[in-house]
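INFO  loader      accepted 1 record
INFO  loader      residues=490
INFO  predictor   begin
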Amino acid sequence: MGFLQLACVHGERLAKIGAMADSETAAPAGANALDALQLDRARLGPTRRRRLPGWLRFLLLVLVLVGGSVGYGSLTAKPRVVVATVLRTSPIAAREITTANGYVVARTRASLASKTQGRLDAVLVDEGDRVDEGQLLAVVEHDEQEAAVREAEAVLARARLAVPAAEASLAQVEAALKTAEAAIGEREAAVVEAGATAAERRSAYARAEELVQRQIQSPADLDRAREARDVAEARVVVARASLETARVDLGQSRAAVEVQKSQVELFRQDVAAAEAVLTRTVASRENAFIRAPFAGMVLRREAEPGEVVSPANTGASGSKTAVVTLADFATLEIEVDVYERDIARVAEGTPCRVVLDAYPDDRLAARVRLLRPTADRTRATVQVYVEFAAVPAHARPEMGARVTFYEEGTDPLTVDELTLPESAVPPDGASGDLTVFVEEDGRVRAVSARFGPARDGRRAVLAGLSAGQRVCVAPPDDLGDGAEVDVADS
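INFO  predictor   done
INFO  writer      dumping tokens
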């Protein structure tokens, strides 16, 4: 249009210039009009064809060029369209409390280190391996511990051999004690018997002496009675001496039994001490074998065979502490920081929806497990732990996650809706498959889509479209698939 206006302006200027030239050749004032109209052929000379003025020819050329450009522009102009964006909306958005970003962490996680310092002999697992509780993960050199175990086993064997010999000696002295106790009874019975015999002989001697005085018996009978009495009394003395000897032997036997019992107990204590030493040396050797304290997955392999490892508290220069980092994926949860202004509406058991950054289309149900009892005053947040309703197989520690908290009783897995303005849907029917044009990089693509009923000025997209796509609103009737378009403001 600007070029056409310029051509018209130049045309008007040329017309004025032509009019001025004609006025200079016009007849003088007062001449006869008829004489002025007659042609003087003699002055004109031979008859020639009259040419159009230059300004008129230029004007006609401009008109032809303008008309051609307008016609070409009408043939090549892009149709102008208005687009609307497909939006994802949530039916439970009104029940949303707040959202927070955090990371996936394992509640059960451990960096396993050796309890002794030494060279790492072998690492039996690699990153990503699943291990069982008690499974051997790595081995540290343990030659000294192995020698100490063999020495403790030898000491224990020797101590155990001494116990049976001591117990046999104890049995012997206990048998001697029983013999001494039996001898005491025999000796006491002999003393009683000898005393009874001596009393009888004394009575017999007294009768014999009376009879001799009465001259009933002879003095020889008295001598025999006296001799019998003396012998019986001597036997009493011997029996009593034997009893005392038996009593001394009994005391010695009892002392020997006590001594031997102490010896047996001592040997048994030696055995217990040797067993304790063996247990300690075996435990020291076992410290060289790094085992899984729980079932899980190996996150990191921190050291390689040949490197020197040491306990975390030694701080040995040039040595590594952790050998393997292990986590139980069954205890994966999300750790997020919730602003203090929203924490009053969050409690244990609050329903949540989790979306992992790595899987934005996968929505996971979860609930609040724990609110930490302290806040972070530098950021004005409270740390909250959110546990999955079912731990997904694709979750990994340290993955980023977005957690949305909802009011109690809300189903966090309520499906979101895709909606379009009602004016963007062709008026061919309330529902069913309709053809719409999706604008992508200045071109349109015909897509078959299905829509639900209208609600609040928007139509639900049931199939065919995805969030973020731009759909042409009231496209021209002659718009075709693949056509280039000029996009107006949405």
